[in-house]
Write a structure and sequence with these properties.
6-stranded mixed β-sheet; alpha/beta; Rossmann fold; 2 domains; Conserved Hypothetical Protein Ylqf, Chain: A, domain 2; disordered C terminus; two-stranded antiparallel ribbon
Length: about 290
Amino acid sequence: MNFQWYPGHMTKAKRMMQEDIKLIDLVIELVDARLPLSSRNPDIDTLGKGKARLILLNKSDLADEKANILWTEYFKGKGFYVLEVNSKSGAGIKKVNAVIQEACREKIERDRKRGILNRPVRAMVVGIPNVGKSTFINSYAKKACTKTGNKPGVTKGKQWIKLSKTLELLDTPGILWPKFEDQNVGLRLALAGSINDDILNITELALELIKILNSDYEDLLQTRYNIETSIDSMETLTEIAKARLCVVKGNKLDLDKAAKILIDDFRNGKLGRITLELPEAENKDDNEGKI
């Protein structure tokens, strides 16, 4: 499979971010805790150079707990502030304000010395499509400020949100990059739902997921579907189709339906807590370093 998806609005969004970054004190970057490196747009480091940085490991409840600890240590080692959050449930959100104040302490102190006492911290919220930016903002603000959805590309333009006298957020559209040099990155993004499913072959995607799970989480498929797994991914998908009674006319197995069930179960955490990459996998061309 070849993974590329770059809608036209992303080019416009990147230009807007380049223009707005000079107004910003802090960049809050959401990444998917199941694939923290693959879900980071490399352009963000360039755009946010010289700004305070906060990484939110979103959907951390869906990721392997031990891996979350490793990724937190990894990003702290890079000089970022880091928090594990779950924007949907609100877990970890209460800690965000204190970390923002700490990350911007020098800026706040500098303003105070200049006699500027009332200027709020301005933070830009960034991340790839479907990573949960709008859900985070709504959870943080404790009200519906932005439109959300379970597919990529819901946010198409920027939006300033005044949360308090001390903090303003700038919501931005999710931006991927024009070409994935490593197709393993594209695979992980497709599995997480950051690439539009309409352009993907879901059955092939499910077969790739089965390979990963057989290698790194071999018991999860057996437990979820009460099946015997096989090193042959197609055989395993066939068993899932039988277990979930996925059939079409003529009593033939509907592998496409079974594939969709498997992908949805992964995305919703019904298979268990899964992380697709570890920090040691950085800058490697193969799959070493995954759990």
